[in-house]
Amino acid sequence: MTKKVSSPEGSLTILDNVNLEVYAGESVAVVGVSGAGKSTLLAMLAGLDEPSAGQVWLNDTEITALDEDGRAVARAEHVGFVFQSFHLIPSLTALENVMLPLELVGRENAAGEALAVLTKVGLSQRKGHYPRQLSAGEKQRVAIARAFVTRPAVLFADEPTGNLDSKTGALIIDLLFDLNQESGTTLILVTHDISMAERCDRTIHIESGRILDPAVA
Amino acid sequence: MLILRLALKTLARDWKSGELLILMLAIVVAVAALTAVAFFTDRISQAVNRQASEALAADLSLQSTAPLQQNYSLAAQAAGLETASVVSMASVVFAGEGNTLANVRAVSDRYPLRGRMKIADGLLLPARTTDAIPAPGEAWASTRLLARLGADVGGIIEVGTARLRLGQVLTYRPDRGMQFIEIAPSLLINAADLDATGLIQPGSRVRYLLLFAGDRAQVRRFKVELQEMLGDGERLRDIADVGPQISSAMDRAQRFLNLSALVSVFLAAVAVAMAARRYVSRRLDTVALMKCLGAKQGLILRVSIIQLLLMSGIAGLLGVLFGYAAQAGLSFIMRDLIGGELPPPGWKPVFLGLATSVSVLTGFALPGFMQLGRTPPLRVLRHDMGPPPLRYTVSYGAAMASMLLVLWWVVGDAGLLIRIAIGSIIAMMILLGAGWLLVRMLGGIRGAAGVAWRYGLANISRRGRDSAIQVVAFGLSLMVLLLLTVVRNDLMDLWRSSLPADAANRFLINIQPDEVSGVDDFLVSRGLERLEFVPIVRARMTAINRVPLRERDFAGAVGRQRASRDANLSWASTLAGGNQVVAGRWWGEAVPESPEISVERRYAEDLQLELGDILSFDVAGETVSATVTSFRTIEWDSFKPNFFIVFSPGLLEPYPATYISSFYAGEGQGADILDLVRRYPSITVIDIDAIMSQVRGVMDKAALAVQSVFLFTLFAGLMVLLATIQATRDQRLYEAAILRTLGAKRRQILLGVATEFSVIGLLAGGLAASGASLAGWFLAESQFQLEYHFDPVLWLTGLIAGMTIVGLTGTLATRSVLNHPPVHTLRQG
Fold first, then answer.
1. Contact present, B298 and B78 (Cβ < 8 Å)
2. Residues B292, A48: C-beta atoms closer than 8 Å
3. Which B residues in the span 291-310 are in contact with A, Cβ-Cβ below 8 Å?
4. C-alpha span between B549 and B71 (Å, rounded)
5. Mean pLDDT: which of A15-19, B411-415, B451-455, B627-631 is highest?
6. Which residues of A touch B289 (CB under 8 A)?
7. Domain residues for A186?
8. In Å, how far is A101's CA from the nearest CA of chain B?
9. Which of A77, A91, A148, A159 to probe by mutation at the B interface, max B CB count within 10 Å?
10. Mutate to test the interface with A, among B1, B19, B292, B382 (most CBs of A within 10 A)
């Protein structure tokens, strides 16, 4: 898969002929310096963006062949996200934020399921709080609950501890890996943090839009 | 359910955070402006419609300047109709020390045949309906008449040579019409007292009315019968004749007020567009996240549409409420002119308000909202990603369509709609061009003062387009307000000062030929110079070039109306002062061999007359004809007796005439005029000063009503200002943070902001003053032939008002930016 964008200086190649296969239940860390193409790779894999050339398959579905709405359905059914800056919806409470992905796929007992996951991340007491009333660590726990509530086949995490202090970050990582193991989700984790990458089954190094040979890395 | 909950939740939160305030307020202003006018005009039209059905006080009314033959009444009775009679004339009446011109109406039993009068036992006492008429020896005076006379029920009123007891206050009579200027308030007397007043003399201006009523079929049959019997100078009117006249005048007034309100709607819509732009940009992150979590574009769109509908419903209803309150204010301002109670408004304005709200939001906010659905989900990872920019054709097309829709509802006439639309677009382009030029010119004086000044001016130039919009939004509303206040007064003063100090201020009419020398001697004995008495012969035009009027095609309704009205003819050998022949020639001292006519130019244009045309008139039952040999212009404001139609001497002399004269009465001469009227009761004195002040009073009130409508425009201008401030808030926060990090004091930044908005206000004031001056100059020079002078007050008012309003509001609205700790902003940035 290749991704090129046009810029004032001409065409820029962000991802250059990347080939990657991730197996069900596997956890993969994507590491590399800023601007290496980590986030672009994640966007392609999750169907947030389209490659200029090549295909992306997600759970036997070629998402590159789908339109915007089709990819949205695929994401709703198979994918969960955890972001560096949490991305909670400010107008919804913690519980409502967790319920949202369930509601988008039309699940009936959204509130009950959401509360169960929120309890798992230790925030059942704060279900009625709005994001602005939560600490950074709590926000990320709500985001993790939201990511797992649909039992996604694949979880994408983009620098999930980037906005947290190291102590809270460590707790969040523990939570993320625990839940991942418990639910058997495939995890694709973009990070700078080598120690976090080491907890994954596999690490992919990316540099200037290319995946480095594991032997070289 | 999810969609509704999401829509409600987001709206509630955005409302709490103040994001929606400007958007909603702008809609409220637009709807309030339009519905205030709609409620008000709805009430007036209802009152007019209700009155129109009673306006004749009968089903059919026969009118003449000569006494009506008995056989009409007999025929009506034979046809099974009811009849009543009214004889009306103008006369000065007296009560104690007071005196004033009154419309004396002598009525017979059973008057009015349709509608009922209302009377009260005294001024300020509650009114009741009545079926009676004044008993012989008694008179009922209207509230205004009593007020002018300083009299009340129980007093004695002198009408000509009769002394009558004031029996009741006449608070309403169905046939009084919707007259904004009532030169002569009414006095109702019994027909039996008419002779005793001695007011009817040969040639006096008297109207004789015979009223008929009955069931519809009878009236229709009788109307046909009556039309066969009609003599010259006798006019038959039924409701269908009266209704359209009133409603066409009403339609015009209504349209004008509605168009005034539409200026506010347009400005408010600009504010809506700006506020919506900001609102959409603030929601991009949430939408991107929802899409990332699997929300389809359709869901986002539905949420947006529900939000817009909710907003337009809430803001629309609030606007309607404010509009309702404002119409109460308008009705209060106009209460004297309307006279009497107005019926409560109907529901139509409520629908108009809600439709306006939906239309403005759809046209000015929906395109932006629809773009939200196209936000790429990738924005969750890359904050610089946004929806593709809206195509100009879509955004401007939707805005234009929504404005045209509202305009169509209000105007309801395709031709007018197109003219207004094109006119508005041109006016807007000129104004925006002027605003943009003013903003550009600022660049040159940027380095003139300190940091705050430079920072303020730099802000204006950098946001050039927004600054120009602000200048125009305020300039426009200020311009209209200046035009209605300062320029209107200037023109009035200019006109008054253009009149000679001794211009006549009293007219004497209805002077009998045998009274002329007596009146002249009397006034000379009281220190006045000898007056010029001009003869008047009452006549009716019957034919042009031997073709009867009813067979002639008139291009406009005005021509037919003018021709069919009673004409006042006069004759003269010399051209009167203030008259100028513009075509043909004046007959001069020598009496021409065949009779000639000189016609006033505009009158001739309305009747499509040409030199050489032969006009025929019915004068006292005989036909007289003469040839048009000249057209004249007349300086009407010389206040001298002047006539549309003047004959050469010779032809009219044998016919019964009355005389008319005018003179200047000094302040101390009131008593002399009273003496004159007591001595010659059939003479009518018309006080020009009193009429002028009445006209001025009406104009003041009408102007005040229009000004109140334009106050909404000022509010709408404020909304534009606040919306642009809101739109630039993040930018301002960031700049203020940088400046403060670099060491700028809070005061310096505040000064910069104050400079920015004060200068925008100054520009708006300047634009307003120049526009208003230009309009004043145009009106003075081309419409009123007056020499317009530069008015420093106009400029001072414009500049100071602009600077104060915009400067203060802008600075206050931006102040919160300075209270935001810079460190927060920089961290977020």
1. no
2. yes
3. 291-299
4. 27
5. B627-631
6. 87, 89
7. 3-91+137-211
8. 6
9. A91
10. B292
Q: Please give the tally of structural domains in chain A.
A: 1
Residues in B touching A146 (Cβ below 8 Å)? 293
Shortest distance between the Cα of A117 and any Cα of chain B, in A, equals 17
- Nearest CB among A87, A90, A101 relative to B294 is that of A101
Show the CA angle centred on residue B547, arms to residues B543 and B552, nearest 5°. 90
Structure tokens at B706: 């229009």
pLDDT tens profile A190-214:
988 888 888 899 999 998 888 886 6
Please answer yes or no on whether A49 and B291 come within 8 Å at the CB atom. no
Instruction: Tell me the count of A-B CB pairs closer than 8 A.
Output: 72
B464-482 and B688-727 are packed helices; what angle lies between their axes, rounded to 10 degrees? 160
Does residue A61 lie within any of the structural domains? yes
Q: Are B280 and B345 in contact (CB under 8 A)?
A: no
Is the residue at A82 inside a domain? yes
Please report how many Cα atoms fall inside a 13 Å half-sphere around the Cα of residue A119, on the Cβ side: 6
pLDDT above 70 (res B250): no
Tell me which of B414 and B233 has the higher pLDDT. B414
Q: Is B475 left (phi over 0), alpha (psi -120 to 50) or beta?
A: alpha
Structural domain includes residue A152: yes
B294/A48 Cβ within 8 A: no
Q: What is the pLDDT of residues B168-206, one digit of tens each?
A: 999 888 877 655 555 678 999 999 999 999 888 776 778
Which of B286, B296, B377 faces A89 most closely, judged by CB atoms? B286
d(CA A4, CA A147): 29
Chain A residues at the B interface, defined by Cβ less than 8 Å, are: 39, 42-43, 46, 48-49, 68-69, 72-73, 75-77, 79, 81, 83, 87, 89-92, 96, 100-101, 103-105, 146, 158
Are A49 and A40 in contact by the 8 Å Cβ rule? The answer is yes
Classify residue A204: in a domain, yes or no.
yes
Which residues from B are below 8 Å from A105, CB to CB? Answer: 294
Distance CA B22, CA B271 (A): 8
Chain B residue with minimum CA distance to A101: B293
A-chain residues within 8 Å CB-CB of B380? 48, 81, 83, 87
* DSSP letter string, B292-332: HTT--HHHHHHHHHHHHHHHHHHHHHHHHHHHHHHHHHHHH
Measured CA to CA, the distance from residue B48 to residue B64 in angstroms comes to: 25
Q: Do B292 and A69 touch (CB under 8 A)?
A: no
Q: What is d(CA B69, CA A193) in angstroms, rounded to the nearest whole number?
A: 114
B696 to A134, B496, B793: CA distances (angstroms): 68, 12, 21
What the block records as the tokens of B156 is 């004695």
Of B285, B293, B378, the CB nearest to A101: B293
Tell me the pLDDT tens digit for each residue of B524-573.
Answer: 888 888 888 889 888 888 899 998 887 887 776 677 777 777 788 999 98
| B-interface mutation test, from A67, A77, A84, A87, most B Cβ less than 10 A away | A87
Structure ipTM:
0.86
Residue corresponding to tokens 């947006």? B304
Contacts of A65 (CB under 8 A, 6+ apart): A55
Tokens for A10, please give them. Answer: 């001409």
Contacts of residue B649, Cβ cutoff 8 Å, sequence gap at least 6: B571, B572, B573, B591
In B, minimum Cα distance to A86 occurs at B380
Q: How big is chain B by its Cα radius of gyration, in Å? A: 34
Tokens of B484: 């209605």
- Asked if residue B509 lies in contact with residue B91, where contact means CB atoms within 8 angstroms, the answer is no
How many whole angstroms separate alpha carbon B714 and alpha carbon B272?
15
Indicate which CATH number applies to the domain containing A148. Answer: 3.40.50.300
Question: CA B336 from chain center: how many Å?
Answer: 15
